[in-house]
Amino acid sequence: MWRRCLCLRDRWRRLLNQPSGGPTAIVRTGANIPSLSRAYAPPAERKRFYQNVSITQGEGGFEINLDHRKLKTPQAKLFTVPSEALAIAVATEWDCQQDTIKFYTMHLTTLCNTSLDNPTQRNKDQLIRAAVKFLDTDTIWYGVEIGSSTSIMGPNIPDRTREVLVSHLASYSMWALQGIEFVVSQLKSMVLTLGLIDLRLTVEQAVLLSRLEEEYQIQKWGNVEWAHDYELQELRARTAAGALFVHLCSESTTIRHKLLQD
C-alpha cells in the first residue's frame, strides 16, 4: 500500500513538473486514451494567455474563442462541439482557470478533443466492445438476465444479455460513446455507468460502489494521508464530467439568452 502511495506521489510530481506548451496541446493522457504518442501528450500547466472566453456558431457546430483566437485540438483541428450547452460547459472550464491553466482538470475539454481527433482511431463498434468488456466483471444487472458467481472469474454472461447491451449502446452517438467508455474506464463497471447515466445513481453513490474493496481496506488498515482523498476527489470529478458529457451529447437542449437592460 505504501509503495502505491509513493508511486502516486511521484506521478503527481512528474505531472506538475512537465514543461509548458502551446494553447492547442490540451489533452492529457489517461485511462480513457490508451497508447497515445508523445506528440499528443499535453503540458500539465501553463500561464493563462487570454482574457475572455466566448462562443460562436459556425458551419460545423459551436466554436470556442479565447479572446480573438479560435480554440483548436492537439491535432490542429478547429474545436467545434455539436450543442450549445456543451460549448457553454467547455467555455466555463476555460473561463474558470485562474492565472495558471491546469489542463489536467479540464475533463470536458479532454473528451471533446478525443471525440474530434480520435487519436486511437477507434470506430463505433470498437468503442462499444471496449465498454462491454467490463460486463464480465459486473455481478448485477437490470432488465436482462445475468447469473451469479462466487468465483473470482465472475459469472457467465448470456449471449442475449450482450446483444441487448450492444444494441442499447449502439443507439448513442460517437460523441456520447466516448463519454460512456470514459466513465466505464473510471468506475470499472458497465452497470454503475448506465445506472449513473439513467439517473438511478448519483455520482457519489456510483463512485462509492466502485470503490467498495478500497473502502474496506481503508476501514481495516486506515486512510493514507492525502493519497486516498486525492484519488477519491479526482475520481468523482472525472466521473461527473463524463456523465455530463454524455447527457450534453445525447439530449436536445435549447439555450435561452436573456437581454440585460439598464
TrEMBL record:
<dbReference type="GO" id="GO:0033615">
    <property type="term" value="P:mitochondrial proton-transporting ATP synthase complex assembly"/>
</dbReference>
<dbReference type="GO" id="GO:0005739">
    <property type="term" value="C:mitochondrion"/>
</dbReference>
<keyword id="KW-0809">Transit peptide</keyword>
<dbReference type="InterPro" id="IPR042272">
    <property type="entry name" value="ATP12_ATP_synth-F1-assembly_N"/>
</dbReference>
<dbReference type="InterPro" id="IPR011419">
    <property type="entry name" value="ATP12_ATP_synth-F1-assembly"/>
</dbReference>
<dbReference type="Pfam" id="PF07542">
    <property type="entry name" value="ATP12"/>
</dbReference>
<keyword id="KW-0143">Chaperone</keyword>
<comment type="similarity">
    <text>Belongs to the ATP12 family.</text>
</comment>
<protein>
    <submittedName>
        <fullName>ATP synthase mitochondrial F1 complex assembly factor 2</fullName>
    </submittedName>
</protein>
<keyword id="KW-0496">Mitochondrion</keyword>
<dbReference type="InterPro" id="IPR023335">
    <property type="entry name" value="ATP12_ortho_dom_sf"/>
</dbReference>
